[in-house]
Structure formats: C-alpha cells, structure tokens
Amino acid sequence: MLAAGWLPCQAPDFPLLAFRFRAVYPCPAMTRETATDSRQDILHTAARLFQQRGYDATSMNDIAATLKLSKGGLYHHFQSKDEILFNLMDHAMDITQQRVIDPVRGIADPEQRLRMLIRLHIDVVLSVRDREITVMLHENHPLPPPLRKRINSRKKDYVHFMENLIAEVQRARQSKGIVSPRAAVFALLGMINWIYQWHKPEGTLQAEQLAAQYTATFFGGAFQ
To answer: Rounded to the nearest 5°, which phi and psi values hold at 208?
Structure first.
C-alpha cells in the first residue's frame, strides 16, 4: 500500500502495462494538490487550443505535446477529449455562478441587479483567464448526449434566472410587454456572448464603456 499523500506513478505510453507498473513502482511524493494543479493546467491549455483551432481540429496528442506530457500522463487525468470538454464547460458554469449570479443576488433593486449582471457577464466574457467561457459558448455540440444534457441544464438555469429578472424589471417599470422576457434574454446573450470575437483590448472601447453602451441599448428596447 502506498504511503499517505502519495499517488501512483504514471506509466509510460503502454496502457496494458499501466496497472502492473503503478502497482510495483510508486513514484516520488506527488500530493493531491499537485495533481489538482496538473488538471487545471491541462484544462487551461485545452481551452486555449480549442479556442484557437476549434474542438474538432484539436487532438489529445496536440494537448499532450503543448504541455510536454506523454500521452500516458494526459490520460492519467482525462480519459477522452469529451471528458476535457465537459470539465471545461462545467467549470465555465461555475465561473458564471460565482462571478455573475452570486454577486447580484444580494442587490434588492431589480433594475440595478440587471445592470450589474450585464456588467459582470461582459467582464467574464472579456477575461483572458476565463477562456472556458468562450469554449462553452460555441463547442457544446460534440459532447455525448448525457454530458450535453447536464451542461444544457445548467445553461437553462441561467437563462431562467435572467428571464425572471427581466420580467421583474418590466413589472417595476410598468412596461407594455412588447418584448417578451424570453426574447429579451436571448437578445442580450447574443449581444454579450459574441463580444470576444471583435473586441480589441487595446482599442478605445473598454469593458466599462462597453457595458454602459450595451446596457443603454438593451434597456432602450426591452422595456418599452
């Protein structure tokens, strides 16, 4: 039995020998924290490659080569590209929950809550360190149905949260209801989620200005 705090050593690229190799040759101490860091490195690298090349054009070999890992080292953490993509999307939803939804829940006024949500969502989409978000937006189709269903369920929760918030603002403003909350949600998401495709960080339109202008545009149309 391995000593506490040790993880089994990774076998080289010989899957049939992997079990025996790991059983006989424990490796120098590798803490679970180190293993977690390795998984995060893999996810961030995969997100960058998926964003640059597209999911279909990126192979497990590409990910391993970029990280200077053996294939065995990569498969020690993730068994397939689908598993990597699912973990990226799941983490993207965690980011959305932690950095957009949770911070606005405590804002009592619905209009201010929506304004802040728009600002925070734009910040996340433009964040260089959160490439998972852009992968999530456009690469969910390759997932196997059970995994896609789990991600779509989390996306729908966010849509419903926004839909209820927009309906609340419409009631507070006594809007005529020309635009339904559901149509307004998808219009807003369409506006925000494609920003990263054209926005230039060195340009004159910075995130704060962009949020103000998008908010003015949205409020000018959704609450007639």
So the answer is: -65, -45
**Domains, the chain, ordered by start:** 37-79 (1.10.10.60), 81-223 (1.10.357.10)
Angle between helices 131-138 and 32-53 (to 10 degrees): 50
**Vertex 185, ends 207 and 114: CA angle to 5°?**
55
Give the global pTM: 0.77
For residue 59, what is the DSSP state? -
Contact between 105 and 161 (Cβ < 8 Å): no
**158-165: long-range pairs with CB below 8 Å, 24+:** 158/93, 158/96, 158/101, 159/185, 159/186, 159/189, 161/101, 162/117, 162/188, 162/189, 165/110, 165/113, 165/114, 165/117
**Interacting residues of 152 by C-beta distance below 8 A, sequence separation 6+:** 140
Chain segment 42-62, per-residue pLDDT in tens: 998 998 898 888 889 999 999
Q: Compute the distance between CA of residue 218 and CA of residue 66 in angstroms, rounded to an integer.
A: 41
Nearest CA to 124 among 153, 101, 157?
A: 101
CB atoms within 10 A of CB 212: 13
